[in-house]
Amino acid sequence: DQQVKQNSPSLSVQEGRISILNCDYTNSMFDYFLWYKKYPAEGPTFLISISSIKDKNEDGRFTVFLNKSAKHLSLHIVPSQPGDSAVYFCAASSVDYKLSFGAGTTVTVRA
Amino acid sequence: NAGVMQNPRHLVRRRGQEARLRCSPMKGHSHVYWYRQLPEEGLKFMVYLQKENIIDESGMPKERFSAEFPKEGPSILRIQQVVRGDSAAYFCASSPSPSRYEQYFGPGTRLTVT
Asked: Assuming Cys at both sites, which of A10, A70, B68, B91 could form a disulfide with A106, CB separation 3.0 to 4.6 Å?
């Protein structure tokens, strides 16, 4: 039962433009959301997070938006850089340490 | 400061054999989580351990899978009598305390069952 879904397996964007990654969830008990970035042959590394009491969190080039009524969040990367080429995972949790992950979106930034 | 270490990175086993996956947490971390990623799916929680204790194994298959985190040495995920459906990437993460905020992941072990 996939509680977190990333419906776009891949995204290609030109360097300098905006990357928008989307994530939907079904469990209304989720109250904390995270984005992880993964390079080949490495483990996922934490990128940015948002609590359900907020609708936006910004950290440098990365902004996460949360729409609780739609059970949807998105990650914006502006401007996109070649080093941003990676797999991005959306994750969610409800009160405890268990993280539920989406299947990931592979981002390719073209020069 | 070394990160989370996992070995082996790649493991090939024939059906019916045993697989042992090792995870050494970051220095100072005594909480370990194991996740499994099946093809085309996201990472799924399997088990949470502290030193010498299994805290939550709600995501572990009921049979053939076990995990431990001894007082000394790495955490071990053991899969007995492997089947083709066990082929997956297994990631462990560690944290200094029970946390959903700061789990640090290792590079994973890719298990292939032939």
From this structure: A10
